[in-house]
Amino acid sequence: MQRRLPPGPPLWESTLNMRRFRENRLEFFSSLYAQYGELCYFQMGPQPICLLNAPELIKQILVRDYRSFKKGRFLEMAKDLLGEGLLTSGGEHHDRQRRIIQPLFHRQKIRNYAETMVKRAVLLREQWQANQEIDMAAEMMRLTLAIVGETLFNADVEGEAAELGKAMYTVLETIKMVGNPWALLVRKYQLNTPGRRRLMAAQAILDQTIAEIISQHRQGKSNQQDLIATLLEARDSEGNGEGMSDKQIRDEALTLFMAGHETTANALAWTWHLLAQHPRVMAGLKQELQHVIGDRLPDVEDLSQLRYTRQILTESMRLYPPAWILGRTALEEYTLNESYYLPQGAVVIMSQYLVHRDPRWYTQPESFLPERWSEAFRHSLPKFAYFPFGGGPRNCIGEAFAWMEGILILATLAQKWEAQAIEAHPVEPEPLVTLRPRYGLKMKLIQSR
User: Fold this and answer.
1) Which of 79, 297, 351, 440 gets the highest tally of CB atoms within 10 A of its CB?
2) First vs last Cα of the chain: how many Å apart?
3) CATH code: domain of residue 13
4) Binding residue ranges
5) Closest by alpha carbon to 250, among 222, 209, 198, 220?
């Protein structure tokens, strides 16, 4: 049988596709998925794209044939900010960096950061006031920023290192906008806009901070065990036994900061939104926390017992996966199966948001049902029917860190607080680099009895 391109809208709709994509990305991809199924080939302007949401083909591209693809265009543009870190690099450089850094995220290593996560969550819950109206999305961002500031830089970004905190926030806001048309023009022509000037100033502060920390450690003037210190000590045991240069450490530190902050914050924010809509689930969470933890603070030893807490986060990331989309570019003509092929340069888009709501894998796919995540159900799912952290050799290296952080933060805050939705406040997902609430999440705090 002669192979052909997958089905999809006609070529003459390429300009219309660009407009629909700009107006509402989720709606655009969802409509293609509904009309053409798990494999859809189309063009946006001159760029060929394949929306691919079949778990077995996702596994094929991310695991079996990952060397036939490079990372997507967004990550190429992110190199301006992040350099050649794990998120943006490829080939032998990526493989070497992955070998060096992987042991640092072993479960036994990251357990050391649990105390910081709980401590920061306690500081936040003590600041909250009964009946106070807050933006839960902003509060979770502030919390995870404080945690990554302390674990990565050993700095209190809400206290004496407030300037560093502002710089970190500026870089995050810029990363979110990478890929929109104006950002592309600013990048291409190096336009001297106020936003670009703010970014350059923020980047200089981050670079100086990282350089000073590296220098102190190299000169033996610091005994702090932050993540930068751990990166300094890491060696390529399977290669030449060498460590990383200061530039490589800088790139990896910025990458860990960016990847380890906003994703967890958005996961937690959407979780609070869902809990406010489902008081039965909130009651079940409270019951588990009382049974496992009681009146003390949670710690790393409780993680295995907080099963319902984990199920709640799992289901929240099914409905609102922070990383809602993955992109790869075909390095050469690629055979998908016996029927279809992709041309060289085609962009493959795999969407967690779409796959996680597929009724083939999930009964009542639009419903928030944490109880569905039994061990039997997990084992029944195809490998890539649930993949909030990606998969294959390039999957998220901080997955275990993120699970620990999410569970400990949710447990610590939910011991003392519930949140009510404010009815008049619009809630809509905004699919940028991560899936964030477009208008924030205005909520009213209710102190637990």
Assistant:
1) 351
2) 68
3) 3.30.43.20
4) 396
5) 209
Q: What are the CA-CA distances from residue 304 to residues 170, 232, 299, 399 (Å)? A: 36, 31, 11, 16
β 442-447/133-135 pair status? antiparallel
Instruction: For 177-211, write each residue's pLDDT tens digit.
Output: 555 554 554 455 455 677 778 778 887 887 887 78
Side-chain-side CA neighbours of residue 18 (13 Å): 13
User: Do residues 207 and 167 both lie within one domain?
Assistant: yes
Token pair recorded at residue 108:
């036994």
Q: How would you classify the pairing of strands 347-350 and 326-330?
A: antiparallel
| Regions of the chain short of the pLDDT cut 50 | 182, 185-186, 189
Domain count, the chain: 2
Query: Which CATH number does the domain housing residue 243 bear?
Result: 1.10.630.10
Q: Are residues 59 and 33 in the same domain?
A: yes
Q: Which residues contact 143 (CB under 8 A, 6 or more apart)?
A: 120, 121, 124, 265, 268, 409
- Quote the distance between the C-alpha of residue 200 and its chain's center: 24
Which pLDDT score is estimated for 189?
45
Residue 148's domain spans which residues? Answer: 83-321+356-447
The residue from 355, 377, 407 where one domain ends is: 355
Both 305 and 380 in one domain: the answer is: yes
Condensed to tens digits (0 to 9), the pLDDT of residues 96-149 reads: 888 888 877 877 778 889 999 999 999 999 999 999 999 999 999 889 988 988
- Copy the structure tokens of residue 54: 């079949």
Do 220 and 369 lie in a common domain?
Answer: yes
Same domain, 246 and 342: no
Q: Are 304 and 439 in a shared domain?
A: yes
Q: What is the pLDDT of residue 190?
A: 58
Tell me how far CA of residue 79 lies from CA of 88, 167, 181, 254, in angstroms: 6, 18, 17, 11
Give yes or no: residues 404 and 270 share one domain. Answer: yes
pTM of the model: 0.90
Rounded to whole angstroms, the Cα distance separating 438 from 449 reads 32
Residues annotated as binding site for heme?
Answer: 396
What is the DSSP secondary-structure string of 269-317? HHHHHHHHH-HHHHHHHHHHHHHHTTTS---GGGGGG-HHHHHHHHHHH
Domain co-membership, 337 together with 293: no
Contacts made by residues 202-206, CB under 8 angstroms, sequence distance 24+: 202/166, 202/167, 202/168, 202/170, 202/171, 202/174, 203/81, 203/167, 203/171, 205/163, 205/164, 205/167, 206/164, 206/167, 206/168, 206/171, 206/254
Question: What pLDDT is attached to residue 106?
Answer: 78
Please give the Cα distance from 178 to 66 (Å, whole number): 24
Instruction: Return d(Cα 185, Cα 187) in angstroms, integer.
Output: 5
Burial of residue 400, with CB atoms counted within 10 A of its CB: 0-12 exposed, 13-18 middle, 19 or more buried? middle
In a 13 Å sphere around the CA of 144, the CA atoms on its Cβ side amount to 31
